[in-house]
Amino acid sequence: MRNAQFSEPDPKTLDAIKRVLGPAGWKAPQDASRYFEDPRGRFRGQASLIALPASTAQVAEIVRLCAANSIGIVPYSGGTGVVAGQLAIDSDNAIVVSLERMNKVRHFSVDDSVIVVEAGCILENVHTAAQDHDMMFPLNMASKGSCCIGGNLATNAGGIQVLRYGNARDLCLGIEAVLPDGTVLDELSPLHKNNTGYDLRHLLIGSEGTLGIITAATLKLKPQYPDTSTAFLAIQSPAKGLAVFQEMKRHLGDTISAVELMRGLGLTLVASKFPGLRPPFAQTPDWAILLEASGALGLGDRMQEALGACFDKDLLTDAVVAQSQSQRDSLWALRENTPAANRMAGAFCNSDTSVPLSRIDDFVKDTLQAIFDIHPDVQINSYGHLGDGNIHHNVLPPNGVSKADFLSANPGIIDAVRLAINDVTQKHNGSISAEHGIGRLKTDDLETYASAARYDTLKRIKAALDPKSIMNPGALIR
Amino acid sequence: MRNAQFSEPDPKTLDAIKRVLGPAGWKAPQDASRYFEDPRGRFRGQASLIALPASTAQVAEIVRLCAANSIGIVPYSGGTGVVAGQLAIDSDNAIVVSLERMNKVRHFSVDDSVIVVEAGCILENVHTAAQDHDMMFPLNMASKGSCCIGGNLATNAGGIQVLRYGNARDLCLGIEAVLPDGTVLDELSPLHKNNTGYDLRHLLIGSEGTLGIITAATLKLKPQYPDTSTAFLAIQSPAKGLAVFQEMKRHLGDTISAVELMRGLGLTLVASKFPGLRPPFAQTPDWAILLEASGALGLGDRMQEALGACFDKDLLTDAVVAQSQSQRDSLWALRENTPAANRMAGAFCNSDTSVPLSRIDDFVKDTLQAIFDIHPDVQINSYGHLGDGNIHHNVLPPNGVSKADFLSANPGIIDAVRLAINDVTQKHNGSISAEHGIGRLKTDDLETYASAARYDTLKRIKAALDPKSIMNPGALIR
Question: Is residue A206 located within the same domain as residue A239?
Answer without folding.
Answer: no
